[in-house]
Amino acid sequence: MKTLSLSMLLGLFLGFSTSALAATPPSLLGQSFVPDSNISRLQQSALGTVTIQLTAPANFPGAGFHLSLEDQQPFFHITRSNSGALLVSFDKGFSADLKSIETTENSAGVLFVSIKSWNALVHPQAHIKVQAFDSTGKSPWVSFVSPLYPLAASTGPASLPELLGQKNQVSSLKTWLDLAFNETIEQASQNALISLEINYLYKNSGAMASVLLMVPTSFTSELTTQVESAVQNWLQTQHPVLENASLVFNVRIFVPGESAGQALRPVYIFNGLELPFTNLN
User: In angstroms, what CA-CA distances link 266 with 34, 124, 131, 151?
Assistant: First the structure.
């Protein structure tokens, strides 16, 4: 003899189908990316925190959310424990660099999900989707109208040798550029483009002069050699004072738009990276 569950009996008594029962879809209240402000290494300059605001899950054990950050990627999950605490778990294959996740909720019933150490070069966009679940079933998936496009932006002045952990090193310009690009653009997708502005700064007066302006271009192994050659040519032509002077770099990294014809979209900006001539041979 088949035993009817309590929910089935309730459905028969009230005259509705229990298959129609489902969790209430969450309301998505906001999404944001905030770059890290405390940067001690250059590779940290691409990092920030993605925060999702949504209605908190139902206040009983077993209720929670499935969340997806990128299309066709494994999910992570937020559930309530028996004590009401929020727990985070991950599907197999979930990106290891995105597993630093904090959850908080306020008295107004808003849940804040913060994904720490989000690398805007590695993950240039987030397609956030959420599905609620509880004892009644699962809700439809809901998503934001537009993807989130993180932009890691930093402004100096900042010492390039110090951010690379080599404050006292003396090397060629190509070596410095190779080290810098290894910690920035080489993390980005293969179709990323880089633009570079280099200025000369005389610290005694604060006077600056333009040395090089490079439009967005693909990164190749020859690029740093070409940049070094252009800078050397400027130095040999202009004969600037090198004592108490620096080269100042403004770096931008772009990715193509999501569809053909869309403009390039910046994902990384660092203005004011200084390389003193005392670190150049």
Answer: 15, 9, 30, 7
Minimal CA–CA distance to 272: which of 45, 44, 35? 45
Question: Can you list the alpha helix ranges (DSSP code H) found in 158-258?
Answer: 160-163, 173-182, 223-238
3-state helix, strand, coil in the chain (%, to 5): 20, 40, 40
Q: How far apart are CA 133 and CA 121, in angstroms?
A: 33
In angstroms, the CA 150 to CA 176 distance is 27
How far is residue 150's CA from residue 50's CA, in Å, rounded to a whole number?
8
Q: What is the pLDDT of residues 55-69, one digit of tens each?
A: 999 888 989 999 999
**Residue carrying the six token digits 């998503």:** 143
Amino acid at 176: W
Tell me which residue of 125, 123, 112, 114 sits closest to 55, measured CA to CA.
112
147-167 residue pLDDT tens: 999 999 999 999 999 999 999
225-261 burial: b if 16+ Cβ within 10 Å, else e: eebbeebeebbeeeeeeeeebbbbbbbbbbbbeeeee
pLDDT exceeds cutoff 90 at 108: yes
Decide: residue 61, CB within 10 A, 0-12 exposed, 13-18 middle, 19+ buried. middle
- What dihedral do alpha carbons 38, 39, 45, 50 form, nearest 10°? -30
> Distance from first CA to last CA of the chain, Å, rounded?
89
C-alpha torsion sign, points 143, 145, 146, 150: negative
Describe the crossing of helices 223-238 and 173-182 by its angle, rounded to 10 degrees. 140
